[in-house]
Amino acid sequence: MAIIGIDLGTTNSLVSVWENGHAVLIPNRFGSCLTPSVVAEAAGEICVGAPAKEKRLTEPENSAALFKRYMGLEAQAPLGDKWYSPQELSAMILRQLKRDAQEYLGEPVEEAIISVPAYFNDEQRFVTRQAGVLAGLKVERLINEPSAAALACRSLNGDEDETFLVIDFGGGTLDVSVVECFDQVIEILAVSGDNRLGGEEFDKRIARHFCREHQIEYGLLEPKQQQMLLKSAELCKRQMTEKSAALMEWTGPDGKKGLILTAEDMVRISAPLLKRMEEIVHKALRDVSMTAEDIDKVVLVGGTCRMPVIRQYIRHFMGAEPVMVKNPDEVVALGVGTYAGIKERREDIKDIVLTDICPFTLGIGVRDDSSGELIMSPVIERNCILPFSHEEEFWPVSKTQTHVAVRIYQGEAMYCKKNLFLGKIDIAVPEGSEEHRKVTVRFTYDINGILEVEAANEAGQKARKLIVNSQIRMSEKELERKIEQIKNLKYMSRDEEWNTLVLARGERLYEECLGEDRRVVAANTQWLRTVMKGKNPAAVRAARKQVERIFEYLEEKLGIDEETIGEET
Ligand code: ADP
Ligand code: MG
Questions:
Q1: Which of the four pLDDT bands, split at 50, 70 and 90, describes residue 154?
Q2: CB-based contact 464:424 (threshold 8 Å)
Q3: 3-state secondary structure of 350
Q4: For the whole model, what pTM was predicted?
Q5: Quick one: angle between helices 263-287 and 308-318, nearest 10?
Q6: What is the mean pLDDT of the chain?
Q7: Closest C-alpha to ligand 1, atom 19
Q8: What is the pLDDT of residues 113-141, one digit of tens each?
Q9: Contact in structure between 468 and 122 (CB atoms under 8 Å)
């Protein structure tokens, strides 16, 4: 049975499989390899991907997107009249990808490898796995996105040693990693990033530029209008990857407005974001005491890397031409698919060892006499390669103390209050000389990203703690109940999804068009609805095709080209 590889992205998700000596992407039911990571609800039914993304434009309140950002947190998003956790929403996406894969392969799929950002902590990895379980997938292993990218970019059987700088610029985040490949080992040396810097930030800045030029107060627009404005901005941004100028259009409360954006405008609009990107790259390089010269290949990953300004800027500060495959948003998925091939023990591919790193500093709080504050005393520093174990010695602050409370923190700040508190261990300190009162603290961070902290005193007593956030962990019973719940949600059928997609597209087009075009949209939408009431599947399909053609024509007229939606076959 095949193992599938999944890139569960913030904006788009992809699924791949190892076939005939290479990784191939599996198209979804709409014929595209990119499934937008969006979930929507309509009349008690769930839809995923392109129709959900389309619905988000006209009914933002009935959809959920960008939930990868909240993985591992106790956040919930409303969908219809229910609330869902990020892992439940992710499970809905995974379930869809699994189905698409099954349809493509013509056999059941049970096992998957999922990629996660290198900086994901144990909790985030745990809930990603859990999302897999909820979707009925066995997730044997998670792979770091930059390792997957390096794996995809590396000539598969070549043993050449290379150091990569992987710049993954997605929809909502920027992740930069230094990855070293030697023999059959892929090792991440450093990671750095910003989870508030992605393609969306460019859309927002373009939208704000548009508003400034037309004296519109962005903040005063209704959420729906903001969504439409952002969509126009994104479209304009995409057009600029091939053209040196593009027309951005948007219909607001007082009619249609347009603005021509040139390449120079783009440079000006993007400048602060590019600067931030450069700093993040330098941080990753600094962490491993490297400079641009130590890098053999700069690999561009993620849809945002398609922007020419980004490539130019990287070329400028790295002093070398970055490597970009034709579709940078597919690289990670291809790497995960390759790894799936390795895990299947296929003969046409050599085994490879992937190492993980601890992306943040772990330490304990030590009271500072001068300020009375707890100061971070690192035990494991960021970027160390896993598994890793290290011990440090500490002494109680006061002579009268009979216990020491070892407070464990994660983060880079000097003051503990700015870092994440992970837990506490109490250990007795026997009376006696200074040497007798020593406490040894050992941190062990294993390959699965689980931290074990052990504190020992000189009397030979030990206290141990595994750091897990119990609030997110579910009991077996609860997990089973959730699996059933996700399985029993009413999902739209393939036909219903297509109908939803076309109807939502009609609603959005209605808002974008004016005059006669608008009447055409309304008449066609209503006609399709009427045919749907007849419940004759063949008639609905025929009508839908016809309506789609008309919408396509109108979109072309508006200059919209839907990249994530393929052709209905
Ligand atoms: P993620 O890893 O976050 O799921 P992707 O790698 O799929 O995201 O990238 C999505 C981002 O790429 C979006 O912000 C989208 O606007 C941007 N993008 C896709 N195609 C282009 C293009 N041709 N030009 C500019 N940006 C693009
Ligand atoms: Mg990505």
A1: confident
A2: no
A3: coil
A4: 0.84
A5: 40
A6: 89
A7: 303
A8: 999 998 887 788 889 999 999 999 999 88
A9: yes
For residue 115, which ligand has an atom nearest its CA?
2
CA 475 – CA 132 distance, rounded (Å): 16
Question: Ligand 1 pocket by C-beta < 6 Å: which residues?
Answer: 9-12, 170-172, 198-200, 234, 237-238, 241, 302-304, 306-307, 329
- Please report which helix (H) or strand (E) contains residue 63, including its range: strand 63-65
| 3-class SS letters over 376-388 | EEEEECCCEECCE
Q: How far is the CA of 300 from the centre of ligand 1 (A)?
A: 12
Looking at the CA of 233, name the nearest ligand. Answer: 1
Atom of ligand 1 nearest to the CA of 234: 16
Residue 242 Cα: closest atom of ligand 1:
23
CA torsion, points 114, 117, 118, 122, in degrees to nearest 10? -70
Q: 317: buried, middle or exposed (CB in 10 Å: 19+, 13-18, 0-12)? A: middle
Amino acid at 471: Q
Q: How far is the CA of 37 from the centre of ligand 2 (A)?
A: 11
Mutate which of 329, 330, 564 for ligand 1? The one with the most ligand atoms within 8 Å of its CB, which is: 329
Amino acid, single-letter form, for residue 357: I
Q: Return the beta strands (E) in 281-359 as ranges.
A: 297-301, 353-355, 357-358
